Amino acid sequence: MNINPTLINLFAIPLSFFLVVLSILVIQSITINIVSRRLGNISFSHPRLFRAMNWWGVFIHELSHAVTALLTLNKIKEFKVSSSGGHVTHYSSGSGFFQWLASQLISASPAFVPPLIVAILLGYLHYIDLGNITFDFGSLEPVGVISGLYLGLIPYIVKTVGLLLVNLDYSRVENILLLLILTFSFSAAKPSSIDKKSGIQGDLQSLIEGFYKFPVYTLLSVLVFTGVFWILLKLSPTLFLYVVMFLILLPILSIFALVCNYLFIRLINLFDNSSKLRIILSISAFVLVYYFMKQYTVEQYLINIICAGVLIGILKLAK
Question: Within this chain, do residues 30 and 165 fall inside the same structural domain, yes or no?
């Protein structure tokens, strides 16, 4: 059977963009599982800190469900958060494809809403500006799109975010706030959003169930996604590029934030294995070296790396 190549590319090119974003989301999910297991390492030695971190992670998670439910014209019946879990109960008078789509968006929202909050904060602080990016996908065909994203746009975003974080000046209050939000907002316990009408529970399991239990809606969503993809690309290539950048930027921000969370937990473990005197000395040396170096260098990343090295080095000194 001869199939028109144009017809194949009509679906294959949007699918190639989707697969790239999906691959980053998979890495994000794996990182969440790793960090969640590490978080349990401090549950016995620091129960209050553990409960506080868990509560904040659950709050952000459930807030994502609640905000998305409201934006998709659902009504919130119950919003519950605790350090051990939580849930959002929502319902709608609507039905059919649009309500199914709303449920799917609500289920997927924790992957995008928390990093969107960070992205807005970064924009507000004028730390990141993607508006001047020009990116050429080359020949618009599946292999070219995938290679262009993996070898061009993704490395650029990783480099931009990485350099931003290592160059933050932590003598400024807003940067400390940003670091705290990054460190504590993405550890994500795994509570669920519950839709009383459809009986669908949130997060990955319900997202998958929603696709295979409603194959007609799934097929219709593919057609809608394909149509929106081509309309956006043809009418406004600039807006299309912004959408692609944000869909890639958000999970990458989540991965960086989870790395911050992991490093924080490792630092707590170092504190646990050190004497109080060594902890006081290491923190004092960190603060003194930080402010001393600021007088003699403008390379902020050098200040941050050297001061962190001083802190960790003193903690690791042999007893």
Answer: yes
Angle at Cα 109 formed by Cα 166 and Cα 115, nearest 5°? 10
Burial string for 292-310 (b: 16+ CB within 10 Å, else e) reads ebeeeeeebeebbeebbeb
pLDDT band at 306 (very low <50, low <70, confident <90, very high): very high
Contact 163, 302 (CB under 8 A): no
| Average model confidence (pLDDT) across the chain | 83
> Are 142 and 211 in a shared domain?
yes
State the helix-helix crossing angle for 237-272 and 215-235, rounded to 10 degrees: 110
CA distance 315 to 317: 6
Same-domain check for residues 216 and 302? no
Determine the 3-state secondary structure of 289 from DSSP: helix
Closest CA to 75 of 91, 87, 95: 91
Q: How far apart (Å, rounded) are the C-alpha atoms in residues 36 and 188?
A: 7
Instruction: Output the CA angle 275-281-285, nearest 5 degrees.
Output: 150
Kindly tell me if the per-residue pLDDT of 133 is higher than 70: no
Dihedral sign, Cα of residue 315, residue 169, residue 252, residue 13: negative
297 and 196 within one domain: no
Alpha helices of the chain — where are they, by DSSP H? 5-39, 47-71, 97-108, 113-124, 142-148, 154-166, 173-184, 203-213, 215-235, 237-272, 276-293, 300-315
The model's pTM is 0.86
Confirm if 82 and 56 have CB atoms less than 8 A apart: no
**Which residues span the domain enclosing 30?**
5-272
Mean pLDDT within 4-16: 78
**Measuring CA to CA, which residue among 81, 80, 100 is closest to residue 92?**
100
The pair phi, psi for residue 16, each rounded to 5°, is: -65, -40
Q: Are residues 282 and 262 in the same domain?
A: no
Spell out a b/e string for 15-37, using b for 16 or more CB atoms within 10 Å of the CB, else e.
bbbeebeeebbeebeebbeebbe
